[in-house]
Amino acid sequence: MIRTPLRPLARIIRARSTGQNPDEIEAENKRQRHAEMADRARRRAEGRLLVLGACFLLAFSAIGVRMGTISASVPEEPRTADVGNPIISQRADILDRDGRILATNLETHSLYAQPPQMVDPRAAANGLAAIFPEMDADKLYADFTGGRKFLWLRRQISPEQMQAVFDIGDPGLLFGPREMRLYPNGRLAAHILGGAGYGREGVDSAEVIGVAGVERAFDAYLRDPANEGAPLELSVDLTVQSAVEQVLEGGMSLLNARAASAVLMDVHTGEVISMASLPDFDPNNRPRPALEGDPADSPIFNRAVQGVYELGSVFKIFTVAQAIELGLFSPETIVDTTTPMRWGPHRISDYRNYGPELSVTDVVVKSSNTGTARIALQIGAERQRAFLAELGLMEPTSVELAEAPTGRPLVQSNWSDIVTMTTSYGHGLSSSPLHLAAAYATIVNGGTLVEPTIMRRTAPQTGPRVISAETSAIARDILRQVVVRGTATFAEVEGYAVGGKTGTADKPKPTGGYYEDRNLNTFAAVFPAEAPRYVLITTLDSPVDTGGDEPRRTAGWTAVPVAGEIIRRIAPLLGLRPQIAQPMLTGVSLSAN
Amino acid sequence: MRGVLYVLSAVIVIVLGFWAYQQNYRTQETIGKVRKLHSEIGEAHARLRVLRAEWAYLNRPDRLRDLADLNFERLGLLPLRPQNFGTIEQITYPPAALDPIVRSIELSSSNAPDGEEPL
């Protein structure tokens, strides 16, 4: 490159000769040189900007194109990402306390039709009608030849039915995969499990959602993929549940009862080991709720949880336990039991006359209404109400079933003296058998509150103390006396020292008043009495024992023998060793020769 | 020196490219294998689920009870009762083992001296 000198000699000399300032020439040249330099620098900067802009354009268009392809393409799972167990089914299993299956899933197929693809609608309709008895060929044909483009035919079909439909050979009949909820044990524990149905349905899959029982209560847990298919473990024991249901069903039919329920609860953990309500249903094919008539007559009604009844004399132990806890009475205190007892316009009478006075223990053993009412008057309305609330008899149970909130006890709004007296022997306050089981567990386990649960637990509950351990021991002894020499002698099971209290309550008419010949018979049993492990509440609706000369309707003749038989069956299953007197050893000797 | 460096880096790039190419294909192959294994595991799980459901269905208490009733003559099964519990004293001890024979007595008469009574 040729550099122009700032002071070219020729021009300087010429300028000097003409008297001009040569510095002007230098300044002029300097200016030109600077202008050139500025031009060059600008061109370079512009070039760089262009390259940079091109880079940004390229980068942004690459991102834009990628975003476009991602949004426009079909979503696809990353092939290599390790997302844990890819095999889990849509809904987790439900197991009993020993891991036996109560509910699981089975893969089946659904059947749907796409009429536009059909070759021979007439043959398809006839073929389907021959396979599925509930389908009508003419109606199907009308559907197929109408304007519809898609219709569901069956939600679930068996593999045999699928093959038969396949053999029709019509391309318009299609199958979609389905997961089906299966309860392999049929009717067993039906009310606990509830049932499941389909939610949103698509061709390729359908949501399985719980509609009742634990299926509904734990719906979110069972469907949560984060649990990786971890099963739900219930506190129920399948074998015990089966034995309870069998004995209860036998007792119900022998005694011509309209319905029956049983609750078996661990007194320390509050676990419901067994809960039965008869009549029951098959959760694989859950009946629809009855739209007319009394919902309590429907088989899907869970009597043990939803049914609130005046349970009768089983409440007497609460009154007596509170009176002893308050120090007002001791088990030996003599109470006035003259019958009938008059209170204003009301009259309280005993089942039969037990004489003018009884000890507190005998008031419960003989089940004297008048004696309990007089004890309750000493306690007073406020304290009685507070005690029953503490036992959980005023609120719905906290058991994890969808139906639990509907089992709200019916409590008198005006807790007058007469309500205090009737409530002391179980009339005027309606609660469910499950409430009673929890309250009995609280009374006999040493006096700490137990809340019922259907989930498997490993540790005992440490609830707040309701009564002292001494009062609890006294209550256990009184309950044992009831079975040894009181109203529940049929519940004596050799080796298990059963304690308990009977309750025979008249059923209220829907129109008001009480039925003469309809009772709700309850037996609340505790075994083994000296160190209770389990509480069993057995309830029979309107039973009658026709074995004797005249029909007998009291709990002692109906609910008690059934409960005794249940205990005889389940106690060995629960692993309780009977306390049998030492057998005489005969014919056994140590010998060697 | 610089030329050697250029050639060396070019060779390294070529080798790395070849290695990456191979790795790519091996990864693809492994992914295919994993996918196949996953589907096999899935099928096995589905089979297992069916088998477990079948097991539970065949072992349902109702059915076992009916079977026990049907085969009562052969099996004689009854529900467990409190009477079925025993005490430890009711179990006989196993017979004591024989003491070792330390002084054996010869009971054969083959070597007996003459005149002695044969066994």
**Mean pLDDT score of chain B, rounded?**
86
The largest sheet of chain B, given as strand count, sense and whether it forms a barrel, is:
none
Q: What assembly state would you assign to the polypeptide chains in this entry? A: heterodimer
Question: CA-to-CA gap between the ends of chain B?
Answer: 114 Å
Could you tell me the number of beta strands of chain B? 0
| Low-confidence parts of chain A | none
Structural class of chain A: alpha+beta
Output the radius of gyration of chain A.
41 Å
Count of runs of 4 or more consecutive helical residues of chain B: 3
Describe the structure.
The complex is a heterodimer of chains A (593) and B (119). With 593 residues, chain A is α+β, with helices and mostly antiparallel strands. Chain A has two domains: 94-232, Alpha-Beta Complex (Penicillin-binding protein 2a (Domain 2)), CATH 3.90.1310; 239-573, DD-peptidase/beta-lactamase superfamily (Beta-lactamase), CATH 3.40.710. Chain A is 36% helix and 19% strand. Chain A has 17 helices and 19 strands. Chain A has helices at 9-18, 22-72, 121-131, 137-145, 159-168, 190-193, 213-217, 219-223, 238-254, 316-325, 360-365, 369-379, 381-390, 417-424, 433-444, 469-485, 559-573, and strands at residues 94-95, 101-113, 151-157, 173-182, 195-201, 206-212, 232-233, 259-266, 272-278, 309-310, 334-336, 341-343, 346-348, 357-359, 410-411, 429-431, 499-508, 514-527, 534-541. In chain A, the strands form six sheets. In chain A, strands 1, 2, 3, 4 and 7 form a five-stranded mixed β-sheet that branches. In chain A, strands 9-8-19-18-17 form a five-stranded antiparallel β-sheet, sandwiched between helices. A three-stranded antiparallel β-sheet of chain A has the order 10-16-15. In chain A, helix 10 crosses helix 12. The longest helix of chain A has 51 residues, at 22-72. Chain B has a domain at 2-78. Chain B is built from three helices and no strands. The longest helix of chain B has 57 residues, at 2-58. The mean pLDDT of chain B is 86. The interface between A and B is large, with 40 and 34 residues.
